[in-house]
Amino acid sequence: MDAVPARAHGYVAAVALLAVSCLSRPPDTPGSWLAPTLLAALYAACEHAVHRRFGGTFYPVLLAGAFLLPPSAAALVPVPAALLCPVGHRPALPRRVWRAARPALAVWAAARVHEALGGRDAVAGSDFPYALLPAGAAVLAFCLVLTALDGGLRAAAGLVPPCRTWRGLLARSLAPVAVHGLAGLMMAVLWRSPYGPVSALLVLLPMCVSWWVFAQYHRERAAHQATIRALVQAVDIKDGYTRGHSERVGQASVLIARELGLDDDRVEVLRFAGILHDVGKLGVPTRLLRKDGPLTPEERRIIELHPEYGHEMVRGISFLGEARTAILHHHERLDGTGYPYGLAGDRIPECARIVAVADAFDAMTSTRCYSRARPVEAAVAELERCAGAHFDPRMVRALVRALRREGWRPAVTADEPAYGTAPAERAPRTGAHR
């Protein structure tokens, strides 16, 4: 928070004061301190392990506290973890305050809702399925408070425009927190059962296994992203025009794929395809990519080998799937006049037809050293004019619908003079560039 505006520090202080007010009625008898103390110690241990090995936050113990304790006692559970767990960035104090106050307020609200709906009695009596209703309401309250607090901090820090401050926060958190809530409910029921608090620890074992699996998935995904970044950076160094272009083609490919209703896995693969569609430039002589003046027919034939070079480069990267096909065929045209193989119509793979439209759209809406960016409306009109000859009309219509609904705000690419021009892109501006 060292580079964060003063109003963000003020926001954190206000949230901390609000959290302190929620702690104004702590447990008032010696015996009533036992459960909060045990849960606080367990939560601190889980948070330390999760942060060190997996990243993220482990909510089952916190929500179990909301189901077992009065609101003021439940709000005490996350405090020791915030004070004891290491802080990775400076300044440490406001970060610790935020990490304590944020979950304290959320669990306090969850405990209030749970208590008001008779949830504690339902947990004590193992009253199923009624116990699920107050637990579900408590989880919703927990998520709403976290969303409100996180969005408020983003607004105070000026990280996003105010109109988008809270967008998507609740939707992203509700499903995982609901799973944690079910585990917390099981912990609370076992805690109140004749088997006692020790039995509640058994619930954490499958949760830890699931976290390990989830962490492995994210490590693998991070490795995929690192592989793609390395390839894209290599292309960017060699051909200045592609700086930013690859990411925008990936973005446009995602817009088209989602508009077509493709499943999430294929959407992700098409994002990879868009980002890596020009990776074959690594096999093209740099002098051709940066040459001033027109290309000779022989030079153009060399340039037109880049899809095949790209396909060879990524052939062994199994997670790319059909993205490899898109890299090979994204310059084919519906009328058979494209390259490298002159495929026509439905013989061109669907993924390649999507990337072709995304690639041409970004080429027309990006500023290059020899031509200025066209307005989005003009680029769309050009795509529609070429639909049926160069581009699949279905893909063009999908992009148009997505643009009308979501708009297009790409970063404009402007090449440095030292990079020269990208002559192979100098086809007439019909969107059917190299």
TrEMBL record:
SMART domains named among the record's database cross-references: HDc (SM00471)
Pfam families named in the record: HD_5
Chain residue ranges for the region called Disordered: 414-434
Keywords assigned by UniProt, alphabetized: Hydrolase, Membrane, Transmembrane, Transmembrane helix
Domain HD-GYP span(s) in chain numbering: 220-415
Positions of transmembrane segments: 62-84, 128-149, 169-191, 197-215
Keyword Hydrolase: yes
GO MF annotations in UniProt: hydrolase activity
Positions of the HD domain: 242-364
Protein name: HD-GYP domain-containing protein
